[in-house]
Write a structure and sequence with these properties.
This protein is α/β, with parallel strands linked by helices and about 375 residues long. It folds into two domains: about 170 residues, Rossmann fold, CATH 3.40.50.1970; about 190 residues, Dehydroquinate synthase-like - alpha domain (Dehydroquinate synthase-like, alpha domain, Up-down Bundle). It is about 50% helix and about 10% strand. The strands form two sheets. The protein has a six-stranded parallel sheet, sandwiched between helices. The chain starts with 15 loop residues before the first strand and ends with a helix. The model has no long low-confidence stretch (mean pLDDT about 95).
Length: about 375
């Protein structure tokens, strides 16, 4: 007999999502005005700026464009957050527009945090065993325009790397959640194939972790399964043809389906591993997720066979083992690395502080199967 449903549903405090080819050009100026902005500051990456997209966005914003910072770096190093904040403050920014992937989104959240709170960035991080810091000061509104399958635009958490210790640290404030997300498949066509595939497989991993979350419910299950189907059907075509706006748009919609559920149910070991393989060893989040996903699934299988079975059935597969095999095959089809050693990470790198950092990450504590140091080492050894 099924147990009674009990729990909570968290509704993110964002205003909404605009999606479709060309919507950034048509909607951005109005969205800036809607959030009360008159001086919109764009934050992006050197590659997006070189592609001309930052100039396009500045042109669409017109008189409300206050300036652009194009110095975002992978894994959002803390010094870059401080540099970007100084630039935004000097520009008199009253609205932030992120243009790029998850590192850009997290950088923009960090800028919003410091513009609102002032002070030293490190004093606001989440730390196990320490009271949560007071982050009640009002934050500058953030409009996210993702060009990858980031997902960070749907969370109120910023992952910022402390380069001195090689650890990605978390900053949480509901006010950091972007007010609007703009999914424009024309802008997304600028994302290189490997980056698109990697970030897409990261979202695949997130659908699996939502299904396996301890607080999962029928709503989160339905949205995660639907997102998984969209991704498995469309990642291949969207990677093969950047201008396939139908496939890229459907992948983006899958992100909008699954990521708001993370606020309600949390993430697991895949997320913890990618945070720290990225922050400590420089591995892109998408590729880290892709590599560790099947090994985390095998680690969780003794307690997650029912959830994996439902995911398998949604894809027309017969068993959890067939699901793991299909995801491994999809990784190969997309041309992504399947082992950590293929990325330049040595076996010795995994014997450093990575294990401790993974255990300190909230994803480990939320994993469906209990995680200890031996478990992390087991998964990393299998993934290497």
């Amino acid at each position: 007999m099924a147990s009674a449903l009990t729990g909570r549903i968290l509704n993110p405090r964002s205003d909404g999502v605009h999606y479709g080819p060309g919507v950034a050009q048509t909607e951005l100026p109005g969205l800036v005005a809607r959030v009360g902005g008159t001086r919109a500051f764009v934050i992006t990456t050197p590659s997006v700026e070189r592609a001309g997209l930052a100039a396009d966005v500045a042109g669409w914003l017109g008189a409300s464009h206050a300036g652009t910072f194009a110095g975002s770096r992978e894994h959002t190093p803390a010094p870059v957050v401080i540099e970007a904040t100084d630039a935004a403050r000097a520009a008199g920014a009253d609205c932030l527009v992120s243009l790029g992937g998850s590192s850009v989104v997290d950088l923009t959240k960090g800028v919003a945090l410091l513009l609102g709170q002032g002070g030293d960035l490190a004093e606001y991080r989440m730390e196990r065993g320490r009271p949560r810091p007071d982050l009640s000061a009002p934050k500058v509104p953030h409009i996210a325009v993702p060009t990858t399958l980031s997902g960070a635009e749907f969370t109120a958490v910023a992952g910022i790397t402390d380069p001195d210790v090689g650890e990605k640290q978390m900053y949480l404030d509901p006010q950091l959640l972007p007010r609007w997300v703009v999914f424009d498949s024309v802008l997304a066509a600028s994302c290189p194939a490997r980056l698109w595939a990697g970030t897409g497989m990261k979202v695949v991993a997130d659908t699996i972790e939502v299904l396996c979350a301890r607080r999962a419910n029928p709503q989160t299950d339905a949205l995660a399964l639907g997102a998984l189907q969209l991704l498995v059907e469309n990642l291949g075509p969207a990677t093969a043809a950047a201008d396939d706006h139908v496939a890229r748009g459907r992948c983006q919609f899958a992100v909008a389906m699954v990521f708001p559920q993370l606020a309600a149910v949390g993430v697991g070991l895949v997320a913890a591993l990618r945070h720290q393989l990225g922050g400590g060893l420089g591995l892109p989040h998408g590729e880290a997720s892709t590599i560790v996903l099947p090994h985390v699934m095998r680690y969780n299988l003794p307690v997650a066979s029912e959830q994996y079975g439902r995911a398998a059935a949604a894809l027309g597969l017969e068993s959890p083992e067939a699901l793991i095999a299909r995801l491994e095959a999809l990784t190969a089809e997309l041309g992504l690395p399947v082992r950590l050693r293929e990325t330049g990470i040595s076996r010795d790198d995994l014997d450093g502080p990575v294990v401790d950092h993974v255990l300190n990450d909230g994803g480990s504590r939320g994993n469906i199967a209990a995680v200890d140091a031996d478990g992390v080492k087991q998964v990393l050894a299998a993934a290497w």
